[in-house]
Amino acid sequence: MRYAVISDIHSNIEAFEAVAAYLDKNPVDSIISCGDIVGYGPSPSECVKKALSIKNFRSVAGNHDAAAAGKIPADGFNADALASLEINKKLLGKDDLKYLSSLPEYISENDTLFVHGSPRKKLTEYLFLMEKFKSNISAFNESVCFIGHTHHPLIYQFNTLTGADTFINIEEDSEMYTLAEGKKYIINVGAVGQPRDGKASACLTFYDSKVKTFNFKRIPYDVPAVQAKMKKLGMPEALITRLSSGY
Predict the structure, then answer these.
(1) What fold is seen in the domain 2-245?
(2) Mean pLDDT of the chain
(3) Which of 11, 121, 151, 177 supports an S-S bond with 44, CB 3.0-4.6 Å?
C-alpha cells in the first residue's frame, strides 16, 4: 500500500490545504496522520472539517487532540501551548470535539505502526535522544513505526541482529530511501503546521509498504496568512514567529 504519512497539522488550515492539494495531484491509497490535528494554530475547526472531508484520511490521537477533547489533562503543556489550547477549545464545535475524542491511540497494519509520541507512550513521550529511540524498539512488533510530536523529521534505524543503531541523514527533499530487511525503523514525519527543523514549509512523507521505500517532501504555503489570523486571536508571539523561522 502506498501511504502519505503526516503529523502535527496544529490548526494550520493553510498548510493542511496545501498538502491536501498536492495529494490530489499525487494520489495515494491511504493518508494517515500521526496526530495533533489541533493546537497552536488559529483554525482548529476548519482542520477537523478538512480531515473529515478527505475520504482516505485517518488519524491517531495526539496529545493536543486528547487535551482539547478533555481526555487527558494539559499539565505538561508550557504556557504558550496552554494559551493556544484554550483559544482552540473556544473555536471547536461539539462535532469537532466528538471527532477528536474518537481518535485511536494507534493504527497498526501492513507491518507498520502509526502513533503520535512513541511506541511506548503513544500520546506523550518525546523521542530526541538515541537512547530513547533504542529503548522503544522492543515496544512494537512491526518493522516500521511512524511518529510525530517533536516536529523534527528523521529516520532511526535499528539492526535486529547486531543491535547497532543509527540516525539516517536527510540529505535532500524527495530523496528516496529503501528500508532494509532485518532492521526496524522509527521515522518521525515532521510537521505539517508547525515545522521545527529550520524550514518553514509543511512536511509530507510517502511510504510504500510493499517495496519498503520512503521519502520526505516539503510543501510551501501562505505563512503570513496564518500569522495574521493568530495575531487577530491574540495568540502568543513566539508561536506566531515560529512559523516563519521554523524553530
Answers:
(1) Purple Acid Phosphatase; chain A, domain 2 (3.60.21)
(2) 97
(3) 11
